[in-house]
UniProtKB/TrEMBL annotation:
Organism: Streptomyces thermolilacinus SPC6
Pfam annotation, one family: PfkB
UniProt feature coiled coil, ranges: none
Residue stretches making up the Carbohydrate kinase PfkB domain: 9-288
Xref: InterPro entries: Carboh/pur_kinase_PfkB_CS, PfkB_dom, Ribokinase-like
GO MF, one annotated term: kinase activity
Keyword Kinase part of the UniProt annotation: yes
Protein name according to UniProt: Sugar kinase
Keywords recorded for this protein, A-Z: Kinase, Transferase
Length: 306
C-alpha cells in the first residue's frame, strides 16, 4: 500500500533574483541619466519562487526544485525559502543563479531583461531527484526553463499531474508547445495571441490538457474547461495598483489551490483573479502573497460558494 503524498505541489524551475528599477515611463526615452525613486533593489523571486510562495501562503505543502549558483544571488534565493519555511532542493548551476532586471512604470507595467548567460545547453535536473520528489507529490508545476523541459518525461512516467505557465507564448514557438502538450493544466498570457480561443483549443486538441487559462490583465481571463470557453472577469484590486509583477504567478498558485482542494474550474479561476488582483497592489521589492483566509473571504464576497 502506497503512503499518502508528502508534497501537494512540486514546483520545478523558475528560481532567481530580480533587480527592480522604477522608471518614470515605459518605454523609457533615451537620456544620459535618470534619478530613480524609490530606489533600486535586488531581491529574490522569479516565477517559480512566486508560485511556491503563493501556494505556501495558501496552506499547500510545497517543495521547490531548481538549479542555483554558489553566488550572492543564490544566497538570496536560499534565504527566501528558508525565511518562509519552503523546502528547497537545489542542483548546482556553474553559470550562476538566474537574474533579471525589471523596469516598472508608474502604471505598474513592467519590462524584464533576463541575463541569458546564466544557463547552458547542458543544464539538467537529475532524473533520479525529479523522480523521487514526483513520487511523493500530488502535482507538479513546471516552469518553462530548459532543465524543466528535460524533466517532463520523468514527471509523465511518475504519473503526477502537471501544470505549466507559458507566459507570453505566441501560440507557435515549438519550445513552448512541448510544455503545453505535456501539461494537464496550462496557463498563459493572452498578450501575444491574435485569437486566444483558437490557441487554447489547439492546446487541448494536441496535448493532454483538460484546462487552459489565458490571462488578459485588466480584461480578466479566458477559461477553457470541459470543452466550454468562459470569460472570467477581472477582480478590482483592494488598494491602488503599484506593480503587475507576479500577478500571473499569483493567479496560477490560487487556481491550483482551488483545484487541489476540490473546487471546480470556474471557482478556481475566481480564486486566481482574486490573488492576481492582490499581487498588483504589492510592490515588486517585497514578497507578500495573499493568505488562505483573505482569499476565501474576498472570493466568497464576490461570488458566494454554492
Amino acid at each position: 500500500m502506497s503512503s499518502a503524498p508528502d508534497i501537494d505541489v512540486l514546483v520545478l524551475g523558475g528560481a532567481g533574483v530580480d533587480t527592480i528599477v522604477y522608471v518614470p515611463e515605459l518605454p523609457l526615452p533615451f537620456a544620459d541619466s535618470y534619478m530613480i525613486q524609490p530606489g533600486i533593489r535586488t531581491r529574490a523571486g522569479q516565477t517559480g519562487d512566486f508560485v511556491a510562495l503563493g501556494l505556501h501562503a495558501l496552506g499547500m505543502r510545497t517543495h521547490h526544485l531548481d538549479m542555483l549558483g554558489d553566488d550572492p544571488e543564490g544566497d538570496l534565493v536560499r534565504a527566501l525559502h528558508r525565511d518562509h519555511g519552503i523546502p528547497l532542493t537545489e542542483v548546482p548551476q556553474p553559470c550562476g543563479t538566474k537574474r533579471a532586471v525589471n523596469l516598472v512604470g508608474p502604471d505598474g507595467r513592467r519590462l524584464s531583461l533576463y541575463d541569458a548567460t546564466r544557463g547552458s545547453d547542458t543544464d539538467r535536473l537529475p532524473d533520479d531527484t525529479v523522480a523521487a520528489l514526483a513520487a511523493t507529490s500530488r502535482h507538479a508545476h513546471v516552469s518553462i526553463t530548459q532543465p524543466c523541459a528535460h524533466a517532463l518525461p520523468v514527471l509523465l512516467a511518475a504519473g503526477v499531474t502537471i501544470s505549466t505557465d507559458l507566459h507570453d507564448w505566441d501560440g507557435e514557438n515549438p519550445y513552448h508547445a512541448a510544455f503545453a502538450h505535456a501539461a494537464d493544466i496550462v496557463f498563459l498570457s493572452a498578450a501575444a495571441l491574435d485569437d486566444p480561443e483558437r490557441t487554447m483549443r489547439g492546446i487541448v486538441a494536441r496535448g493532454r490538457a483538460r484546462e487552459v487559462v489565458a490571462t488578459a490583465g485588466a480584461d480578466g481571463a479566458h477559461l477553457l474547461a470541459d470543452g466550454e470557453l468562459t470569460h472570467v472577469p477581472a477582480v478590482a484590486p483592494p488598494s491602488p495598483v503599484v506593480d503587475s509583477n507576479g500577478a500571473g504567478d499569483a493567479f496560477a498558485a490560487a487556481y491550483l489551490f482551488g483545484r487541489l482542494t476540490g473546487e471546480p474550474p470556474r471557482r478556481s479561476a475566481l480564486f486566481g483573479a482574486t490573488a492576481g488582483a492582490h499581487a498588483c497592489t504589492v510592490p515588486s521589492t517585497t514578497t507578500a502573497a495573499i493568505d488562505r483566509a483573505t482569499l476565501l473571504t474576498r472570493a466568497t464576497r464576490l461570488s458566494p460558494a454554492p
